[in-house]
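Please go through this chain and its backbone structure tokens and walk me through the local backbone shapes. Keep your notes short.
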Amino acid sequence: MSEINPIQHKPPYGMIAILFIGAFVSILNETLLNIALPSIMDEFQVNPTAVQWLSTGYMLINGILIPASAFFIQRFTNRSLFLTAMTLFTIGTLLASLSPTFGILLTARMIQAAGSAMMMPLLMNIMLTAFPIEKRGTAMGIFGMVMFVAPAIGPTLSGWIVEHYSWRMLFDIVLPFAVFTLIYSIFKLKNITPQRHIKLDVFSIVLSSFGFGGLLYGFSSAGDKGWDHPLVYSTIIVGIIALIALILRQLRMDDPMLEFRIFKYPMFALSSAISIVLSMAMFSAMILVPIYIQTIRGFSPMDAGLLMLPGAVVMGFMSPITGRLFDKYGARTLAIIGLIIVVTTTFFFSQLDMEMSYVSLMLLFTFRSFGMSMVMMPVMTNGLNQLPMEANPHGTAMNNTLQQVSGAIGAALLVTLMNNRTEAKALELTENAMATIDSSIAQSNQAIAEAQAQIINEAMLHGINFSFFVSTIIGAVALVLAFFIRRVKSDGTIEKRNVKKKEADKAIAG
């Protein structure tokens, strides 16, 4: 065991700042490329299925490495781990910027992903190590800025850059920050996390890769290929079988790669359940709003990105404030208020029509983001607070893994529901339209085309509204769960609410 003191008397703010920058650019890079995919298709002459691997492959590498992060964080020093991760990310960024072929670009993205996968779990673990429980809310609130703002501003920034410059500029902008972070960390980064000399179970890595990787790929492909596609259901089945085998193996091991026994802590288990449900619901707006804005209303990708920007700013502004409120009042009140806002605004999104103004959509999305900012980090921090110090790496790895998987499941579910409802509504509208057409009157091609376009838009709007309604129900489940949250005290025990009042009431009744 390392001799490093697990709780610092004075948190290393300078070191944490550089870790924040590294994590920010790595997470920003995950969503930065999505809008640029059509430009990359044109330059390298590849089809949509191939170019999608720039995003899907990045996600799969994260899904494979994040579960193993608990082992890496315990086995290696935080300095060596961060330097390795940042070096990989920097090399991948440089290679992507210079890539002459699509194959090299894809390889560069995989290298980037291998570096970025370690960033979030490592940063979260350092925050838990550097700050005592009573101050973690403020610290994790600042961490929330990285977690939510970076992916939110990615599409906006990407849309502006692609509109004015080459897609390579996306990597050229990130590269200086990556190089600066790497050089600065070489001189300033110190070791504060405890180490354990544990061995890596290779078979656990294999099971984890097939388990989480299979689930991520299967669910993320379902929205595009359909649930009945052999590649979709076969990878999901393989993922489920491998995941069950992984859990059983970890429970039998004295020193598991990923500790599933941490779910015996009730507040951590509850926070994980709320995070899973909320991650599924959160993706509704991130996916469905751009479809509504661009496809149905005809706005540009840049307009879609700008619509989401105020929400990202609000989340960034609110995260530190929410952290301070968490330290003072706990997670329960914040989560209940935040989820009421999220559920209400999501319901309003299920009532979209062809006339809603751009400003109204922006305000609705921003207010929804405000509610989100009050929930995710407080709930997650309260759950992690109950874990003993040695279980922190497993807690951070588990949280990040569950968010990845539940996000993919939520996105696939909502897109599938939208597509199914759209097809059913389109068929219904088409049959009604055919019934009203006088067969003796010849319809012009232009009139038929306009009628078909109107039917498609109305049907897709119906599908989007239905998906938002389902997302509202999912959010309501999280709201119900939030009422069971109890504050974790500095000694890791759950705060008993109104114990003295109950005893007094019993005495009076007696």
About this structure: Confidence is low (pLDDT under 50) at residues 1-8, 498-505. Residues 13 and 244 are 40 Å apart (CA to CA). The chain is about 75% helix and 0% strand. The longest helix spans residues 392-436.
